[in-house]
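quick one, 152 residues, struct below
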Amino acid sequence: MASNELPRFLYRGTTRGWPGNDASREENRTCATTDPLVATVFAVHCRHFGAAVLHVFDTRDYEIVESTNCLANIEAEVLVKSNPLDFAAAAVRTIDVDEAIEILDAMGFEIPNRLPASAVQLTRFLQIERDRRLQPDQIAEFNRRCGVSDDE
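---
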């Protein structure tokens, strides 16, 4: 996906203060997604490792790197040229995973409160649920509910 095709915001579900894996730090890149539902699923998975959050980022602030992840389509993945800690610090909004779940639930998308710790199980969940992705108008509604505006 070319950077001019990206939506205004990207999302990252993670654990607060997670510095990223070795490859993310060494290559100075961070995984994000164009879909807050996918980011929320990742945040739910991250509950196993600490305080899970969902970060929202303005795409205009970052250089986008092409992803070679074979799961990029399932995850609606976008790679950003930034290490995970700097990326998290620059979020325009950070919400707790429970708030993200509540927002999605109010929009008619039920997300479980817990997922298995296994990355394989996380991938299976995303594959099974791949047809349940937010459409642009639903993403705009999610943004509005979490306090982020396209009008800024």
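The chain has one domain: 3-146.
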